[in-house]
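Q: Give me the 3D complex with pantoate.
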Amino acid sequence: MQIVKSIEEVRSIVRGWRKEGLRVGLVPTMGYLHEGHKSLIVKAVSENDRVVVSDFVNPTQFGANEDLESYPRDIERDAAICEAAGASLVFHPEPEEMYFPDNCTFVDMDGLTKGLCGKSRPTHFRGVCTVVSKLFHIVMPDRAYFGQKDAQQLAVIRRMVRDLNFEITIVGCPIVREKDGLAMSSRNTYLNAEERKAALILHKSLQAAEALMQTGERDVAVIKAAIVERMKTEPLARIDYVEIVDAETLEDAAAIERPVLAATAVYIGKTRLIDNFIFEV
Ligand code: PAF
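A: Here is the predicted complex, encoded as structure tokens.
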């Protein structure tokens, strides 16, 4: 497995693979890899001849007061995980390689990016769409893999690929959880022991809602209220949002008649965590 830092090197390696007729998968990440990322790489390896993992903390998707500087980084550990999972190439560029100092071109999206995480992170998805488009142009993969934990991101990228005619299949992969149910996230490393315990409230509250739906509850307001009530039993939790939306359009679900996404973002101390589930009727 190779680790490269320049766009030109990635292009030249991928060009070689293409000449051999090989199928290429891309797993975009911001590094500090965990079992969730590993599951994406393993899936990509099973469906492609070569897999590129991008490992880049993308500055344009962080807001002014967010954790760009403190975001955890460890390329050596990441490289070992990628290699063990069967990746062929890690693309680990510096920010200067990805963005010209006078970069003024961005990929933005209306609609899907405005609600949920977009409400409290208004520039986030512009940064995500921009960097993912750039990675798609650099690697030109056949397939790209994203986790369902970032459900809004996955819906946004599917829509971007449709709207901008990228010839790439987007593969969504299930949330990977710790044994006690906490969704894996690089940001879990910010939690102290007390916060780590408190963070379980996200999954527990969503599980309670899922159980309600399974027993036939279809009133969105009732289900949302049940999630909020459960969340409030945890003193360290501060809700950013609890929403139930159409799983594809991300518009408010008036009733549960099509697949819905129940999603939440919650601050545990200073750490903002997200979790969700999709309910298929
Ligand atoms: O999900 C992430 O880690 C990032 O948002 C992504 C897709 C790698 C873009 O920087």
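A quick observation: The two ends are 43 Å apart (CA to CA).
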